[in-house]
C-alpha cells in the first residue's frame, strides 16, 4: 500500500441539498423530471404531451392524470390521455377560415417537439429565513417551429411561428405554459387548449365548481347556449361543454366533499368539460378499458371561444397551474 500523508480525513459534505433530476428515455421518446421529494412528471416528445404526473404527501406518489391503456404512444396518433396540447384550432375547424384544412384540434398534439432543456430553482417555504424545508421546482422547455411541419402541413397553415411550451413541476403543482411567437410577415389567428385528462375515483361522486353563472355551448345539444345555473357541474351522461369567458380564474374538481384538483387559468378565458361516458368511450378504439370513463374527467383550460390575433413579431403567452390536493 502506498502511504498517502495528505489523505483527507473525511469527505466534505455536499455543498447543497439534493437537486431535481431529469432523465431522457433510452429511445429518446420522453423526458422525466423528478424532485428530491419524489414527485415526477413525464413528457412525451410526441405532442409535448404530459403523460404522467405523480405527487402526494407519502413516499408512494399517486398518479394525477388518466391515460388510456390503449393510448398510442409511438407518434402515429395523438395520445388518448395526459395533457395533449391543442393548437392552432380547437375542435373541427370552421369552413372558409385559415384553419379549415387542419385536422380536429390542430397539429401540435401530433408532431414531435424538441426538448430545449431544463432549469431548476429552490426556495425556502416556511420557518425562519433559511431554516424551513427547501422547495424545489424544475422546468422543462419544449419547442415546435413552422420548420417542423411537413410540407403538406405548411400548405394547410402557411404561417411562420415559434412555440415554446414550459412544464414546471413543484411539490403539489404542475404548471404548463405556452408561448406563441409570430416569426413571419403575416398576422395569424389561433386557438389553443390544454386538454387535461384528470384521474378521479368515480365520476358519479365528482363535481366541477367555479363555473356558476357562466354561459356555455353544449356540443351534445346541437351547440346550443345555456347558462350554468347550479354551483356544481355533475356528469351523468355524455358531456361536452365549452364554458366561455369565465370571470373567476380557478375551476376545481371536487370528489365527494373533498377538493381534489384546482385548475388556475392564466390568460385563458375558457374551459371545456368533457366526458364521453359509456357509449362514446366504448366506440373509441384507443379508449380502454371501456368502463374507465368513470375514472376520468377532462377539464380543459383554453382560448377557444374567440381567436387570438398575433401580428408579425408579437408574442402571446397563456397556460394553467394544476394543483393536486392529496
Ligand atoms: O377525440 P379527440 O379529437 O381527442 O377529441 C376529444 C374531445 O375533445 C374535446 O375537447 C372536445 O370538446 C370534444 O368534442 C372531443 O370529442
From TrEMBL:
TM segment ranges: none
Amino-acid positions noted as binding substrate in the UniProt annotation, renumbered to this chain: 80, 104, 109
Protein's GO biological process: carbohydrate metabolic process
Keyword vocabulary terms for this entry: Isomerase
Any one GO cellular component localisation term in the record: cytoplasm
Family statement: Belongs to the glucose-6-phosphate 1-epimerase family.
Isomerase as UniProt keyword: yes
Active site positions, chain numbering: 195, 300
Isomerase as UniProt keyword: yes
Catalysed reactions listed for this entry: alpha-D-glucose 6-phosphate = beta-D-glucose 6-phosphate
Leading EC class: isomerase
Entry GO MF terms: carbohydrate binding; glucose-6-phosphate 1-epimerase activity
SUPFAM superfamilies: Galactose mutarotase-like
The protein's name: Glucose-6-phosphate 1-epimerase
Pfam families linked to this entry: Aldose_epim (PF01263)
Gene3D superfamilies tied to this protein: 2.70.98.10
Low complexity bias (residue ranges): 7-20
EC code: 5.1.3.15
Function: Catalyzes the interconversion between the alpha and beta anomers from at least three hexose 6-phosphate sugars (Glc6P, Gal6P, and Man6P).
Segments of this protein annotated with the region Disordered: 1-22
Amino acid at each position: 500500500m502506498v502511504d498517502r500523508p495528505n489523505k483527507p480525513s473525511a469527505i466534505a459534505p455536499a455543498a447543497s441539498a439534493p437537486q431535481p433530476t431529469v432523465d431522457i428515455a433510452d429511445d429518446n421518446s420522453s423526458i422525466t423530471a423528478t424532485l428530491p421529494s419524489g414527485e415526477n412528471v413525464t413528457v412525451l416528445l410526441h405532442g409535448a404531451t404530459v403523460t404522467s404526473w405523480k405527487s402526494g404527501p407519502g413516499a408512494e406518489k399517486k398518479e394525477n392524470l388518466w391515460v388510456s391503456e390503449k393510448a398510442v404512444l409511438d407518434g402515429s396518433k395523438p395520445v388518448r390521455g395526459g395533457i395533449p396540447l391543442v393548437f392552432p384550432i380547437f375542435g373541427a375547424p370552421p369552413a372558409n377560415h385559415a384553419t379549415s384544412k387542419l385536422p380536429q384540434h390542430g397539429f401540435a398534439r401530433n408532431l414531435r417537439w424538441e426538448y430545449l432543456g431544463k432549469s431548476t430553482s429552490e426556495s425556502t417555504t416556511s420557518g425562519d429565513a433559511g431554516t424551513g424545508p427547501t422547495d424545489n421546482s424544475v422546468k422543462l422547455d419544449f419547442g415546435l417551429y413552422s420548420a417542423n411541419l411537413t410540407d403538406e402541413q405548411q400548405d394547410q397553415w402557411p404561417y411562420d411561428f415559434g412555440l415554446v411550451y414550459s412544464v414546471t413541476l413543484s411539490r403539489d403543482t404542475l404548471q404548463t405554459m405556452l408561448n406563441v411567437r409570430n416569426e413571419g410577415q403575416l398576422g395569424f389567428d389561433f386557438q389553443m387548449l390544454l386538454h387535461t385528462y384528470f384521474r378521479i375515483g368515480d365520476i358519479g361522486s365528482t363535481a366541477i365548481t367555479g363555473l356558476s353563472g357562466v354561459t356555455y355551448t353544449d356540443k351534445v345539444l346541437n351547440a346550443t347556449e345555456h347558462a350554468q345555473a347550479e354551483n356544481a357541474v355533475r356528469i351523468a351522461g355524455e358531456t361536452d361543454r365549452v364554458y366561455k369567458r369565465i370571470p373567476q380564474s380557478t375551476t376545481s374538481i371536487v370528489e365527494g366533499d373533498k377538493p381534489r384538483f384546482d385548475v388556475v387559468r392564466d390568460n385563458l378565458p375558457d374551459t371545456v368539460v368533457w366526458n364521453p361516458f359509456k357509449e362514446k368511450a366504448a366506440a373509441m378504439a384507443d379508449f380502454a378499458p371501456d368502463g374507465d370513463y368513470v375514472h376520468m374527467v377532462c377539464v380543459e383550460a383554453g382560448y377557444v371561444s374567440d381567436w387570438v390575433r398575433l401580428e408579425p413579431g408579437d408574442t402571446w403567452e397563456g397556460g394553467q397551474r394544476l394543483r393536486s390536493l392529496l
